[in-house]
User: Which sequence fits this backbone?
């Protein structure tokens, strides 16, 4: 089974802050023969650098903490992620929670106060609309 996954969850240098993190529950998937993880970073696919200013969704827009609008880059990145999902026949995606791109169910509210609100990131929203099952890293056993 091919599963699309946020590249940052695999330790790829693509997080907004330029840091990497290890997610033990994701690492456990790497040894399984029945799962092939297809890494993608929608933000980088959309043309954003690493590191980059923090961004949050404000309705349909995505803006950085310094007020720059990056909606077009997030949309382009979401479309790239969808391309990879289709190319590799993925029916599931493991995405980084709370992200303005990959978050699902809860994302930061756009005030840059670390307040969560109900909603999906741009990529999660597009992938879900295309029928993919979205899984957050905390949903993994």
Assistant:
């Amino acid at each position: 089974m091919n599963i699309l996954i946020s590249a940052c969850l695999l330790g790829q240098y693509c997080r907004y802050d330029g840091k990497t993190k290890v997610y033990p529950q994701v690492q456990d998937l790497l040894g399984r023969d029945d799962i092939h993880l297809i890494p993608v970073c929608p933000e980088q696919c959309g043309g954003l650098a690493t590191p980059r200013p923090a961004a949050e969704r404000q309705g349909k827009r995505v803006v950085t903490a310094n007020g720059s609008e990056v909606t077009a880059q997030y949309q382009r990145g979401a479309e790239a992620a969808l391309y990879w999902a289709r190319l590799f026949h993925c029916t599931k995606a493991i995405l980084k929670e709370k992200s303005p791109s990959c978050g699902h169910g809860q994302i930061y509210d756009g005030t840059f106060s670390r307040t969560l609100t109900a909603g999906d990131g741009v990529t999660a929203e597009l992938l879900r609309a295309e029928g993919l099952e979205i899984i957050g890293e905390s949903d993994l056993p």
Summary: The radius of gyration is 14 Å. Residues 108 and 116 are 4 Å apart (CA to CA).
